[in-house]
Design a protein that fits this description.
The protein is an all-alpha fold. The protein has 4 helices and no strands. The chain is elongated.
Length: 145
């Protein structure tokens, strides 16, 4: 692993620990709010998408048949990862908050701490391996597909 890969891998957990440190700022501080919102919107999802990246990239996007755009697959994959990052982060926030509410232990600090720990754990996980593409189904000799 190169140092640049390590830095990119550790950015989401660093954002979570930074957001936890920002809780020490005064309540109305814009810096505090920005750090927390940016982490909650992208941190957990970015760590989870990084774990799934090889599996996501195994099958490239297919563009429309009549318009051959060379950059379609690259832009489509980027948009897919950005949307997955956002929605996985929001889903993780909702799941952790729901569990804490159900156990009567909800607080913003606990949600942030749990998500930071989840993000840190995901950053240390190895990436998933991509499965090979499925072979087309075989038809018996003499039959019509």
């Amino acid at each position: 692993m190169t140092p640049q890969e390590l830095v990119v891998r550790m950015l989401p957990p660093f954002g979570g620990w930074l957001a936890l440190a920002a809780l020490a700022l005064p309540g109305g501080s814009p810096l505090r709010g920005a750090a927390v919102v940016v982490f909650l919107a992208a941190g957990p999802g970015a760590a989870l998408v990084r774990v799934c990246a090889p599996a996501l990239g195994a099958r490239p996007a297919e563009g429309p048949g009549e318009h051959r755009d060379a950059d379609f697959a690259r832009r489509s994959d980027l948009l897919e990862r950005l949307m997955l990052t956002l929605f996985l982060s929001i889903g993780a926030v909702m799941l952790v908050a729901t569990v804490l509410i159900a156990t009567h232990t909800f607080s913003a600090q606990r949600v942030l701490l749990a998500l930071t720990l989840l993000t840190t754990l995901a950053a240390f996980c190895p990436p998933l391996r991509a499965s090979p593409p499925a072979a087309p189904p075989r038809t018996p000799k003499g039959s019509v597909p």
